[in-house]
Design goal:
The structure holds 2 protein chains of 2 kinds. Chain A is of the alpha+beta class. Chain A has 10 helices and 21 strands. The chains are: A alpha+beta, B mainly alpha.
Chain lengths: 360, 291
């Protein structure tokens, strides 16, 4: 196990990157703690696989360093770094039995046969592969094959970290859930450093202790699932995480309030001034869960027109119009929704973003 | 409408049936017709039963040709398949101009008409004016493919390898390119050696194309005619007379249509049998279906 430190790390697939838009991964620094389960979350093409391949050593970064426990491994191969990686599609050795597949990484490293046997059986037990050990790997189902891919990482007792590149893409939904739980179990038993790349927020939030959200080649926030939900550092985190995502309204600063399309929304004292201090475009962000829908005319509320209600069984998603802007509000299943209603923005839940970054 | 079947469906099969009838069944039945009769001219045919077949099966020279043919095909497979794999493995994998160049160079021998291939090698191998033949002689080796059976054999073999290894290499190259990069990355992470990558990833993934390559090369070499005909004419003596050449000599040279027809049928069955055995062997080996 190792702590992974990235120092001024950046990578571009172009020969001479001029501006930020040329980078697949913009230069940044970050530390991944030893023994923790991380998720790397972001949409397709945001650079998360690039980052993963740099950590594993399949790709040499254009700039910066990768350190494992303080040792510079930037130019070492995956094998020398002692990394294991599980890919999107299960990689198995077709002609071998499940047992031989699991034993393969150990045999390549010249581990004694007795040790190989002991470790293969332990991992097979853990992954519930014991009944299939003598079978040919080729004949198994995709989820069993993916378990073999994971198992080949787990058998190596000294592995520095196991990296997962969207490993559940080809797995059936109900097996996904079971495999993810298996992975959690494995993690709590071995205390491995795990990095799990995914574009599925549910997968990331249920799997990881801490989630790194990536957007356009940069890590915009690293935090626990709760932090990502309650205090998104970037508007992208706001609307990417949560279902529906955060409401974001362009606004102008005012006296103890902000104006959205000329409508004043009261905030905490000083919040608007602090946010406006640096200049730049301001946005008001609030999660649909935190907005309070009330009858029209209540003090401290702004009037809205309800344009749509989606009933999801456990709760309702209300679409409301404020000026020219549209907002989503999550309300309880049994709450009545009048057409002419009012919204309260709880001041401690409303966030202000300046040029996309959290200001207050 | 309560009939459980409808015979009109047969009409749908008719086009294919007619096509196959004209392209395969009718010509084949003509051969069968010849093989059981002695034909002197139009309207002068006599039923001879299995006489031609018996004659063919007891023909010493035919046995020799068959042995030569089997040896030749085995030699071709033993050289071209491993060599083709080796060439494919050492070809560039990117999409640059080098790859295009190698592909074009490899495809060249396949584009040359077979009799031209024979002519090229016939001149190339000549001891007096041929570049290859003269060069070997200059090295002090007494090489002469028109007089020495061993040299004739070697020349025919080398010519076939030159002509057809490209096909195996191109097929294998296609097979190799179809392997997702994740397999190589996983093997790297598992610490696999180059040999292990070949043995456990590349070879199993090339299975499909290798089956096709082996079958194609076997059938084709088993029926080889044009190139040795142009190069050596089957000589010296009968040293490079393979089955199809012997057959042509009988049918066209001596006009023994009955014997030649019987021989053709036997020849056809041999190719069919060998291909079937090869196919079943290759498709079961390495799949774990051994029972």
């Amino acid at each position: 196990m190792a702590a992974i430190e990235l120092r001024n790390l950046g990578h571009s697939y172009r020969p001479n990157p001029a501006g930020p838009q040329d980078y697949a991964l913009r230069p940044f620094s970050m530390t991944w703690e030893d023994g923790a389960a991380y998720a790397l979350l972001g949409p397709s093409g945001c650079g998360k696989t690039t980052l993963l391949n740099i950590i594993s050593g399949l790709l040499t970064p254009g700039e910066g360093q990768v350190l494992f426990d303080g040792r510079d491994v930037t130019h070492l191969s995956p094998e020398q770094r002692n990394i294991a990686q599980v890919f999107q599609f299960p990689v198995i050795y077709d002609t071998m039995s499940v047992y031989d597949n699991l034993a393969f990484p150990l045999r390549n490293r010249g581990v004694a046969a007795a040790d190989v046997d002991r470790r293969v059986r332990r991992v097979a037990d853990l992954l519930e592969l014991t009944p299939d050990l003598a079978r040919r790997a080729q004949k198994l189902t995709p989820d069993a094959k993916q378990k073999i891919s994971m198992g080949r990482g787990l058998v190596r007792s000294d592995v520095a970290a196991i990296l997962f590149d969207e490993p559940l893409t080809v797995i059936d939904p109900h097996m996904k859930w079971r495999l993810r739980r298996k992975l959690r179990e494995v993690h709590s038993e071995f205390r491995l450093s795990l990095i799990y790349v995914t574009h599925d927020q549910v997968e990331a939030l249920t799997f990881a202790d801490r989630v790194a959200v990536m957007h356009e080649g940069q890590v915009v926030q690293l935090g626990t699932p709760q932090e990502l939900f309650e205090a998104p550092q970037h508007t992208f985190v706001g609307y990417f995480i949560g279902s529906p995502g955060m409401n974001l309204l362009p606004c102008e600063p005012g006296e103890g309030c902000v104006h959205v399309d000329g409508i004043a929304i009261p905030l905490r004292t000083g919040a608007a001034d602090t946010a406006a201090a640096g200049g730049g475009a301001l946005e008001l962000g609030i999660r649909p869960e935190f907005l309070e829908l009330a009858a029209a005319g209540r003090p401290g509320t702004v009037p809205v027109t309800v344009t749509g209600v989606e009933n999801l069984g456990t709760h309702k998603i209300v679409t409301a119009r404020l000026g020219t802007r549209s907002l989503k509000v999550k309300v309880a299943e049994d709450q009545p929704v009048p057409t002419e209603a009012a919204l309260r923005f709880p001041p401690d839940r409303a966030r202000l973003y300046r040029d996309g970054r959290l200001a207050v | 409408m309560d009939k459980p079947w409808n015979n009109r469906a047969w009409f749908l099969v008719i086009p294919v049936f007619v096509l196959v009838a004209f392209s395969a069944i009718i010509p084949l039945m003509t051969v069968v017709n010849y093989s059981v009769q002695d034909i002197f001219g139009p309207g002068q045919a006599f039923w001879v039963g299995t006489e031609w077949f018996e004659k063919v099966l007891h023909d010493e020279r035919l046995h020799d040709a068959l042995v030569r043919q089997i040896l030749f095909s085995l030699a071709v497979l033993a050289i071209e398949i491993p060599l083709g794999i080796l060439v494919a493995l050492s070809m560039p994998a990117d999409k640059g101009w080098r790859t295009s160049l190698v592909l074009v160079l490899l495809a060249l021998p396949l584009l040359i008409p077979w009799n031209v291939v024979g002519t090229i090698w016939q001149i190339f191998g000549r001891a007096d004016i041929g570049l290859g033949g003269a060069a070997i002689r200059a090295l002090g080796i007494d090489y002469n493919y028109t007089g020495n059976p061993r040299d004739a054999w070697l020349t025919v073999l080398v010519m076939d390898v030159w002509h057809w290894t490209s096909l195996v290499a191109l097929l294998c190259y296609a097979g190799l390119r179809a392997i997702p990069p994740a397999y190589y990355q996983a093997a790297k992470i598992d610490g696999a050696s180059r040999w292990a990558v070949f043995r456990h990833i590349e070879l199993p993934k090339m299975r499909g194309v290798l089956i096709i390559a082996v079958l194609l090369r076997f059938m084709d070499s088993f029926m080889i005619y044009t190139e040795p005909f142009v190069l050596t004419g089957g000589g010296p003596g009968n040293a490079t007379t393979f089955l199809s050449q012997y057959l042509t000599r009988m049918a066209v040279g001596q006009f023994d249509l009955g014997v030649a027809a019987a021989f053709s049928l036997i020849y056809f069955l041999i190719v069919l049998l060998f291909s079937y055995v090869f196919y079943t062997f290759i498709t079961t080996v390495g799949t774990g279906d051994r029972s």
